[in-house]
Amino acid sequence: MVDIIVIGGGIVGLSTAYSLSRRFPHARLVVIEKENQWAKHQTGNNSGVIHSGIYYKPGSLKAKFANDGSRQMIKFCQENGVNYEQCGKVIVATKDNELPLLTNLYERGLANGLDISIIDHEELKEVEPYVKGMKAIKVPQAGIVNYKQVCETLVSLLKKRDAELYLNTEVIKVSEHDREVEVITNQKTFTASFVVNCAGLHSDRVTKMAGVKADLQIVPFRGEYYELKPEKHHLVNHLIYPVPNPDFPFLGVHFTRMIDGGVEAGPNAVLSFKREGYKKMDIDLKDITEILQYKGFWKLASKYWKEGAKEMWRSFSKKAFVKSLQELIPSIQENDLVPAPSGVRAQALQSNGALVDDFFIVPGKRSIHVCNAPSPAATACLPIGKEIADRVPEIELKPRLVAF
What we know:
Blueprint: E1 2-7, H1 11-23, E2 29-32, E3 49-50, H2 61-80, E4 84-85, E5 89-93, H3 99-111, E6 117-120, H4 121-127, E7 135-139, E8 143-145, H5 147-160, E9 164-166, E10 171-176, E11 181-185, E12 189-197, H6 203-209, E13 217-228, E14 239-242, E15 254-257, E16 263-271, H7 285-293, H8 295-316, H9 318-326, E17 337-349, E18 360-363, E19 367-372, H10 381-391
């Protein structure tokens, strides 16, 4: 019998476990992960951006968590020797019809408490000589980090706090009872006073296993990237983003400096036919059947089919992908880019076709289920982890068996 189990070894699960270990220092805490390493999926394929929170609706959990999270992440890196850089970011308007959207975004950033400024064409050229734009928002708070290294640090801290960490341990069944929760895995069966589900791409399935109802399903979207060849890294000084398309729920292709010195371009956002489908031909019959049988997906597809078709075309046409990048940096050519690893985003979708845009946390009898943890989840993992840990009720700790 243990006190608390956290399901999922990505950055949200590990940060939640870390906060739980601080709130309940004498609890027997267990973290289980089905893969053979921590942070293998969304976290491990993250672009590494420390987000400022400029995009998010003031008052939303995303805005609050991003603002707090970026400060806490930088402090965490400083205290634990994790390499990071506040390189800053520019959000660039390249067309007349984007200028009002840029102004709205600037006002949103101010409402979220950010120290940002609007710069004109000449000022933009001073900071990003190769970028073509009419105006831009300069966001000095944005930065870059390796979130896998952050997770490795969290694992190290958890071990020092005597947490029990299990890899290669996949959840098969969850049964909630009045006084305990039984978690059956491929390795062993655990019984706990409380369970926290941070299973990311499989969070909805774990929620359903526990008998907890939530009107959503995870639909995976693959983010496809290219990387600039080393001799072209000089084209990018900061993070360079377009003004988001208000008719599409993704940020559009952009340039991301990486903490290892590389520069990524992307992502393209396309439906993945497998929840962990990082390649175009990755297909899982169970996953794709669930998607095609879900009425919420068809409602989403009918709304965004035009933008979705463009994304699919860019997925198979490097020329079309480069054309999108040239709107920001006209001198980019096809031979400047090489394919880079893709990532998969766990997008929660409701049955009415609405994308779940904010964090979505559902309580069970003796459990909490993090059903949606969208970007900026990595940036905001520390305050998110604390928020989740604070929602765990006071529990009667089980006595540890001591060997004599």
